[in-house]
Amino acid sequence: MFVFVSNLQGSHKTRMNTHRKFFCYITLLCLFLAAVVSLGGCTNAEKAKAGHVSKGEAYLKDSKFQEAALEFRNALQLDDKLAAAHWGLARAYEGLLRLPEMLQELKKTIELDQNNLVAKNKLGNLYLGVREVLNLLRRPSDLQKTFCKGTRRILKATFYSAVSGLRRTRRTKL
Question: What pTM was computed for the model?
């Protein structure tokens, strides 16, 4: 009977060793799979930025300004110093007629990329249009005469010429 009990203990130990080995293999397999999944999920940041910028440019060509703005903002979340994304976002804001945001993005574009002459031109035209409106507002006597006559042609013409100038520069292909 003593032999029978020792055989039972030996088989029990063998079974325990088998379970431990199985558990170790499963644990190692899970760790390996977790490492593969985590490394596979990582993308190259440069590729991601370039992808967002290229999608944004495609949306701009299709006049989908809201979608373009979203793509350029996604690129800027990855790298806030990406001049191409600021430039694209400025053009998207121009299409959405969000002029204050456009002004801010144009300034950032020129700050990051001194060679972007089109951005400098747009910013200059925007400043000239604003200056014309401010000059009209500084001369209250002329403004009162205009309003007394019942027309706002001067203000409307100045504003619409500034907006149409912005639209014309937006339509030019780079």
Answer: 0.57
Is residue 27 classed exposed, middle or buried when 0-12, 13-18 and 19+ CB atoms within 10 A define those classes? exposed
pLDDT digits (tens, 9 = 90+) for 19-73: 677 666 677 666 666 665 555 544 588 898 999 999 999 999 999 999 999 999 9
- The one-letter amino acid code at 4 reads F
Helices 65-78 and 83-95, interaxial angle, to 10°? 160
End-to-end CA distance of the chain: 95
Spell out the residues 6+ positions from residue 148 whose beta carbon is closer than 8 angstroms to its own: none
> What is the SS3 assignment for 23?
helix
- How far, in Å, CA of 172 to CA of 167, rounded? 9
Domain 45-171 in CATH 1.20.1260.10: no
Asked whether the CA dihedral 98, 172, 59, 72 is positive or negative, the reply is negative
Confidence of residue 137 (pLDDT cuts 50, 70, 90): low
Q: List the domain boundaries for the chain.
A: 45-171
